[in-house]
Amino acid sequence: xELPRIITCTDYHTAGEPFRILTGDTPELIGESxxxxxxxxxSNLDHIRQLVVNEPxxxxxxxxxxxxxxxxxxxxxxxxxxxxxGYSTACGHGTIALVTWALESGRILSNxxxxxxxxxAPSGRLQTVAKxxxxxxxxxxxxxxxxxxxxxxxxxxxxxxxxxxxxxxxGAFYASxxxxxxxxxxxxxxxxxxxxxxxxxxxNLERNHDVQHPEDRRxxxxxxxxxxxxxxxxxxxxxxxxxxxFADGEVDRSPCGSGTSARLALLEASGELPRGEQLVHRSIVxxxxxxxxxxxxxxxxxxxxxxxxxxxxxxxxRHEFVLDPNDPLGTGFLLR
Length: 336
Fold this sequence. Notes:
This protein is of the alpha+beta class. The protein has 2 domains: about 5-145 and about 315-325, Diaminopimelate Epimerase, Chain A, domain 1, CATH 3.10.310.10; about 150-310, Roll (Diaminopimelate Epimerase, Chain A, domain 1). The chain contains 5 helices and 20 strands. The chain is globular and about 50 Å long. It starts with a strand and ends in a 13-residue tail after the last strand.
């Protein structure tokens, strides 16, 4: 009789958003670059993603990753992120959780109270700094790939009427929607409407607009819609709340790390956030990332910014998932 397949994982949450790290003996990802390894995972290992994301072992809002080797000897970790619909190019909350796990598990040795870890993601190389308290990670700050404004004032038809969205890049492309224009707040009672709108916005933009990175066409399409609202300043710092609806109606419980970088590109361009000042970015569950623009850059001649985003991740469990060969549900299902 064929033995059940066993997959071990370690779970963290970053600001409320789950992150499932495959820690067992999973097949090696093949490819020269992380984008190549992402493509390999899609073609060859998607049954593993389905097993740990889908019900009954996961749920439609689960997020996770394959851990792989970095691009070269200057890196510490490589990562391929996955979610309910496939594989993302960037994940800030996942980067924070991954670095926390790597240091707390001993996969990467700490190099002091400010431990540096270099992570290679599909979007590019991320420099991270973990604030340590003994063997525990208190927070992780990552310096993202260059973020930039793609387009502003893009008109989108929706069931709520015409919307004006701004598209920006922070490792993935996001469409920002001001909740004030919808008469909504970023709160749980509005979530069903925001999920439906997020799906509409994403599908409309993918159908009617060619959104791609000028340096690599594999970095393309609108990954999610960020619904944001402005809040009173906190201790003199600009404060906003957001919820990001991404992939197939998946909801980010955290303030969304790569989405925070995309928001910073817009806030820098509009002059709302002066260079070097912090954004207090709150989530729909009132957790916080702090972030700022720390430098300028360019992407194929397009003005861009370098951002840093900081948050904390916490261990929630260790799991051994089994796929019984007689289980008629196989790798599972998603209801939403």
